[in-house]
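Example record used in the benchmark description.
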Amino acid sequence: MSQPTPRAPEIALPPDTPGVRALKIAIVVMGAMIVLGLLTIIGRMVYLASAGGKQGSSLTSSSARLAPNAKLALPPGAHVKHVALSGDRLVVHYESASGSGIAVLDLASGNQVSRVEIVPEVPR
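Model output (C-alpha coordinates):
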Protein backbone atom coordinates (compact mmCIF):
# COMPACT_ATOMS: atom_id res chain seq x y z
CA MET A 1 0.00 0.00 0.00
CA SER A 2 1.07 3.49 -0.62
CA GLN A 3 1.76 6.05 1.97
CA PRO A 4 -0.53 9.07 2.03
CA THR A 5 1.21 12.17 0.72
CA PRO A 6 1.74 14.86 3.31
CA ARG A 7 -0.37 17.92 2.74
CA ALA A 8 1.08 21.39 2.89
CA PRO A 9 -0.21 23.30 5.85
CA GLU A 10 -2.82 25.84 4.87
CA ILE A 11 -1.83 29.43 5.44
CA ALA A 12 -4.43 31.47 7.16
CA LEU A 13 -4.99 34.79 5.41
CA PRO A 14 -5.37 37.82 7.59
CA PRO A 15 -8.90 39.05 7.93
CA ASP A 16 -9.98 41.71 5.43
CA THR A 17 -10.08 44.58 7.88
CA PRO A 18 -11.07 48.11 6.84
CA GLY A 19 -7.42 49.21 7.04
CA VAL A 20 -6.27 46.45 4.68
CA ARG A 21 -9.16 47.17 2.32
CA ALA A 22 -8.27 50.90 2.26
CA LEU A 23 -4.63 50.02 1.56
CA LYS A 24 -5.64 47.82 -1.37
CA ILE A 25 -7.81 50.59 -2.79
CA ALA A 26 -4.98 53.12 -2.38
CA ILE A 27 -2.55 50.84 -4.23
CA VAL A 28 -4.97 50.36 -7.13
CA VAL A 29 -5.71 54.10 -7.36
CA MET A 30 -2.00 55.03 -7.28
CA GLY A 31 -1.22 52.43 -9.93
CA ALA A 32 -3.97 53.84 -12.16
CA MET A 33 -2.60 57.38 -11.63
CA ILE A 34 0.88 56.25 -12.71
CA VAL A 35 -0.53 54.63 -15.86
CA LEU A 36 -2.64 57.70 -16.70
CA GLY A 37 0.33 60.00 -16.10
CA LEU A 38 2.56 57.99 -18.41
CA LEU A 39 -0.13 57.93 -21.09
CA THR A 40 -0.50 61.72 -20.75
CA ILE A 41 3.25 62.26 -21.13
CA ILE A 42 3.45 59.96 -24.16
CA GLY A 43 0.40 61.63 -25.71
CA ARG A 44 1.93 65.09 -25.22
CA MET A 45 5.21 63.97 -26.78
CA VAL A 46 3.36 62.59 -29.81
CA TYR A 47 1.33 65.80 -30.09
CA LEU A 48 4.40 68.04 -29.97
CA ALA A 49 6.30 65.85 -32.42
CA SER A 50 3.41 65.90 -34.89
CA ALA A 51 3.05 69.69 -34.60
CA GLY A 52 6.52 70.01 -36.15
CA GLY A 53 7.33 73.45 -34.77
CA LYS A 54 4.16 75.05 -36.16
CA GLN A 55 3.30 76.66 -32.85
CA GLY A 56 4.26 80.29 -32.48
CA SER A 57 6.13 80.50 -35.77
CA SER A 58 3.62 82.59 -37.69
CA LEU A 59 3.65 86.36 -37.53
CA THR A 60 -0.02 87.26 -37.30
CA SER A 61 0.07 90.68 -35.68
CA SER A 62 0.25 93.70 -37.94
CA SER A 63 2.97 95.29 -35.78
CA ALA A 64 5.35 92.40 -36.50
CA ARG A 65 5.42 93.07 -40.25
CA LEU A 66 8.50 94.77 -41.62
CA ALA A 67 8.01 98.39 -42.56
CA PRO A 68 8.57 98.97 -46.30
CA ASN A 69 11.23 101.65 -45.71
CA ALA A 70 13.26 99.69 -43.13
CA LYS A 71 17.01 100.05 -43.57
CA LEU A 72 19.84 99.09 -41.29
CA ALA A 73 23.16 100.76 -41.95
CA LEU A 74 26.10 98.61 -40.93
CA PRO A 75 29.74 99.75 -40.85
CA PRO A 76 31.70 99.26 -44.09
CA GLY A 77 32.87 95.69 -44.56
CA ALA A 78 30.56 94.35 -41.85
CA HIS A 79 28.96 90.95 -42.17
CA VAL A 80 26.01 89.59 -40.20
CA LYS A 81 26.84 86.83 -37.70
CA HIS A 82 23.40 86.23 -36.16
CA VAL A 83 19.82 87.52 -36.40
CA ALA A 84 17.12 87.13 -33.74
CA LEU A 85 13.47 88.15 -33.70
CA SER A 86 11.56 89.01 -30.53
CA GLY A 87 8.07 90.45 -30.93
CA ASP A 88 8.42 93.49 -33.17
CA ARG A 89 12.20 93.86 -32.66
CA LEU A 90 14.90 92.46 -34.92
CA VAL A 91 18.34 92.08 -33.35
CA VAL A 92 21.34 91.83 -35.69
CA HIS A 93 24.77 90.76 -34.45
CA TYR A 94 27.47 91.83 -36.90
CA GLU A 95 31.27 91.91 -37.19
CA SER A 96 33.35 94.47 -39.02
CA ALA A 97 36.98 95.51 -39.24
CA SER A 98 36.43 98.02 -36.43
CA GLY A 99 34.86 95.39 -34.15
CA SER A 100 31.58 93.67 -33.55
CA GLY A 101 28.27 95.11 -32.51
CA ILE A 102 24.57 94.57 -32.07
CA ALA A 103 21.88 96.61 -33.77
CA VAL A 104 18.21 96.59 -32.76
CA LEU A 105 15.62 97.43 -35.43
CA ASP A 106 11.94 98.21 -34.76
CA LEU A 107 9.99 96.25 -37.39
CA ALA A 108 6.85 98.38 -37.14
CA SER A 109 8.54 101.72 -37.88
CA GLY A 110 11.65 100.47 -39.67
CA ASN A 111 13.87 102.65 -37.46
CA GLN A 112 16.98 101.57 -35.62
CA VAL A 113 16.19 101.54 -31.90
CA SER A 114 19.71 101.12 -30.56
CA ARG A 115 23.21 100.02 -31.43
CA VAL A 116 25.68 98.42 -29.04
CA GLU A 117 29.37 98.29 -29.90
CA ILE A 118 31.13 95.33 -28.36
CA VAL A 119 34.59 96.30 -27.10
CA PRO A 120 37.14 94.30 -25.16
CA GLU A 121 37.33 95.00 -21.45
CA VAL A 122 40.36 97.00 -20.34
CA PRO A 123 42.30 95.23 -17.57
CA ARG A 124 42.36 97.11 -14.29
